[in-house]
Amino acid sequence: MLTKPFEEVPPRLCAWRIAVFARNERPTLVSCLQHIARAAAGRDAHVTVILNGSSDGSAHALADAAPEIGIPFDVYEIDYADKSNAINQFVHRLRADAEIYFFVDAYAMIGESALRDLAAALAANPRALAAAAVPSVGRSADAIRAQMMVEPGLHGSLFALRGEFVARMAETRFRLPVGLYRGDGLIGSAVMHDLDALRVPWTWEHIAVAPGATWRFRPLSPWSAADRRRQWNRLLRQGRGEIEDMAIKRIIYEGNYAALPDFASALVRSLVREDRGEVLRCLRRRPAGILAVREAFAAPDPAPAALAPRRILTAGA
């Protein structure tokens, strides 16, 4: 496997481009791409894998399995472990033109018809800027599916955006604050408001739900040390995420999406300073968020070099 410096992607129109986001997902990453290959069979499709903060040899696993994956793909590596930054890098630096962009988490094994169902939902709903998949496994899957049919939203494990909408995300310099926990929620908000929270009312019809587009995943095990760490980190980030959401709503309805800070830590700090009472009420609901708030004040923001992607593998092109 050759490591190459970052190069701009040639501007070739592709029907489908699929972005896969992974941090230490070696056990599932190859299978994730194989499921994508089956779902994209017969289509002009390309996969961009973005490893963010991975240290488990994911890139080597992909290099070894490249001949059997069955779809052209590139692999990029980012030192800093953060999906929101990885999404920013894809939208603003790594993507090439496409009719539809799909976003997939590397732990998700998507259904064979998932991509076609998402594309069909966009085709059948001209006002829709995005298409949402629904979970098929997990204790809360049924409740989430029912809720999404009434109040559509994007689930970070699998969703699709129209190509022209992603192009406008880049043109308007829409970015997720680096370190943001619920990046898919903020993208969903931008979709509902068509990138303008001050002039475009919240519009449910901008997201089309595709009930047939599903995915499955391996449930976390209490006997796995790695899974216990993942669950603990999730609890920490959920507490911080609720505070981030409150700060985001204040900012976008006063100054629009362009007023969002570069880093999510600034969202937490601003809300603590402006409304300490609301933050305390949030922390009573999610006590683990206290540690996340402390980190927002204590930890330095990452350097630009840590956020930049490096291309490390091209396969099947």
TrEMBL record:
Transmembrane segments: none annotated. The keyword Metal-binding does not apply. Residues 19-147 form the Glycosyltransferase 2-like domain. It holds the Pfam family Glycos_transf_2. It comes from the Bacteria. GO terms for molecular function: transferase activity. Keywords: Transferase. This is Glycosyl transferase family 2. It comes from Aquabacter spiritensis.
